[in-house]
């Protein structure tokens, strides 16, 4: 992630959520994060996982191409929250892990992604900002607090803010708020139509998108949710279903099923999410009568590892590797178990096997090889550790935790300036700009002026970060 881009991302994210996101629903996540959490995300539990990221990228790439967008220029971010939710901010699509867990088929998740791509391709976020500015102007003219506050309360579910907003509904602010909500409902409907177009272009079924809305409607009914549709930032699920049922059934691909291989990958991802968020109990709830399936056994192995039983977890993942010896994620997870058990040298071999088998060439796995070498502590291998981690960072420069291990490797080699520079870059990628500048200043003193390392440190020192 670029150095200025991270701060801009946070500003955009705040705008998207607090001013009613362009999404299924926008609720700031509160679940306890798991997997590999991005250290820089204080409010949003962003997680990194090579297996799930590769799956979601495969879901999104054809949709993005159908929308005329470059897959390499749109980032998919996983949010560790079990609520069914997705939203856009800037050039990023945020998807809750709960969306994948609740989606029984790949097609359901693909439908959600298609909807969010509709917002990106339509430039809805930029126009939303214009609408918010217009609504706030109306509120100021009326001498009131502003539509932005009331809209944020109604959309986010904040009782205090929503209560404040409700007191303004008879005023000029209320008029502005209703206009803003009406605009957003129109954009949501437009995104639904765009999603159907993208699915048609990619020969995919729109049934998953329809199933997602039907699921949301059932949950609303069971929860006793009854809202004034006119004051909702999104069209009510039942209204959207009415349109989608008619349009979706017109698609020649409506009855098309996901391939067995894709379904298996999807279920592996669901099993991992279930295990990390609820242990063995959540795996059992998610897979019911399929507890002897490969995905359920995978989830059980992960849950066993998380419960503090590395030997049992290793036995379970080894049994799965016998059944699927070329599954890179099984070998990656084997490496994680071995790392936890203090067997770093064996973990290095497992991660290396995973990287060799990984067709997506994840930078996360590549960096894990170097991290295992550093943890192993053999001085003669530290140069190899540096090379492995740098290779991973070339593919995934946003992997902030890898910089910490890179700094450790440089430290063991006695290259203190490089260690401090790696520390500075890690802090920067994690969003800790103050400490990044401190270490960049320290590192720069150890390099020859205008050398490549000196310039990298200078980039950090001179880059101004706009505060939200």
Automatic annotation (TrEMBL):
Residue span(s) of domain Peptidase M48: 48-246
PROSITE patterns the record matches: PROKAR_LIPOPROTEIN
UniProt entry tagged with the keyword Hydrolase: yes
Superkingdom per UniProt: Bacteria
Matching SUPFAM superfamilies: TPR-like
Cofactor(s) named in the record: Zn(2+)
Database matches in Gene3D superfamilies: Metalloproteases ('zincins'), catalytic domain, Tetratricopeptide repeat domain
Signal sequence, renumbered to the chain: 1-36
Pfam families according to UniProt: Peptidase_M48
Record-level GO cellular component terms: membrane
GO biological process, one term: proteolysis involved in protein catabolic process
MF terms in GO: metal ion binding; metalloendopeptidase activity
Keywords of this entry: Hydrolase, Metal-binding, Metalloprotease, Protease, Signal, Zinc
Alphabetical list of InterPro entries matching this protein: Mito/Outer_Membr_Metalloprot, Peptidase_M48, TPR-like_helical_dom_sf
Keyword Zinc attributed: yes
Record-linked PANTHER family: METALLOENDOPEPTIDASE OMA1, METALLOENDOPEPTIDASE OMA1, MITOCHONDRIAL
Record protein name field: Peptidase
Organism whose genome encodes this protein: Aureimonas ureilytica
């Amino acid at each position: 992630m670029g150095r200025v881009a991270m701060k801009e991302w946070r500003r955009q994210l705040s705008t998207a959520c607090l001013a009613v996101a362009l999404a299924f629903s926008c609720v700031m996540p509160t679940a306890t994060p798991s997997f590999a959490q991005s250290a820089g995300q204080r409010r949003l539990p962003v997680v990194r996982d090579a297996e799930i990221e590769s799956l979601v990228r495969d879901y999104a790439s054809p949709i993005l191409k159908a929308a005329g967008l470059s897959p390499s220029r749109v980032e998919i971010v996983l949010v560790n929250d079990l609520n069914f939710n997705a939203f856009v901010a800037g050039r990023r699509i945020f998807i809750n892990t709960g969306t994948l867990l609740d989606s029984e088929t790949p097609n359901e998740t693909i439908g959600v992604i298609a909807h969010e791509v509709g917002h990106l391709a339509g430039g809805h976020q930029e126009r939303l900002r214009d609408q918010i500015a217009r609504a706030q102007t109306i509120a100021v003219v009326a001498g009131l607090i502003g539509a932005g506050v009331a809209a944020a309360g109604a959309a986010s579910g904040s009782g205090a803010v929503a209560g404040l907003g409700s007191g303004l509904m008879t005023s000029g602010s209320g008029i502005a708020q209703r206009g803003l909500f009406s605009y957003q409902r129109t954009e949501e409907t437009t995104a639904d139509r765009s999603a159907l177009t993208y699915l048609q272009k990619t020969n995919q079924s729109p049934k998953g998108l329809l199933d997602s809305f039907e699921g949301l409607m059932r949950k609303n009914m069971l929860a006793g949710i009854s809202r004034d549709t006119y004051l909702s930032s999104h069209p009510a699920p039942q209204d959207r279903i009415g349109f989608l049922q008619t349009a979706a059934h017109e698609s020649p691909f409506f009855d098309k099923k996901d391939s067995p291989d894709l379904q298996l990958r999807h279920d592996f991802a669901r099993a991992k999410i279930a295990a990390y968020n609820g242990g063995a109990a959540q795996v059992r709830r998610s897979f019911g009568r399929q507890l002897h399936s490969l995905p359920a056994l995978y989830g059980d192995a992960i849950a066993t590892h998380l419960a503090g039983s590395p030997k049992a977890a290793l036995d379970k993942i080894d049994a799965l590797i016998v059944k699927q010896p070329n599954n890179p994620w099984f070998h990656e997870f084997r490496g994680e178990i071995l790392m936890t058990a203090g067997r770093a040298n064996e973990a290095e071999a497992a991660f290396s096997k995973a990287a060799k088998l990984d067709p997506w060439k994840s930078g996360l796995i590549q960096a894990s090889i170097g991290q295992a070498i550093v943890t192993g502590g053999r001085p003669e291998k530290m140069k190899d550790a540096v090379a492995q981690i740098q290779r991973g960072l070339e593919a995934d420069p946003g992997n902030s935790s890898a910089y910490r291990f890179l700094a450790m490797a440089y430290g063991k080699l006695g290259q203190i300036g490089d260690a401090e520079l790696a520390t500075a870059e890690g802090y920067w990628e994690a969003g800790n700009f103050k400490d990044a500048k401190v270490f960049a200043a320290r590192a720069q003193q150890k390099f020859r002026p205008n050398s490549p390392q000196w310039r990298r440190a200078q980039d950090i020192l001179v880059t101004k970060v706009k505060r939200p």
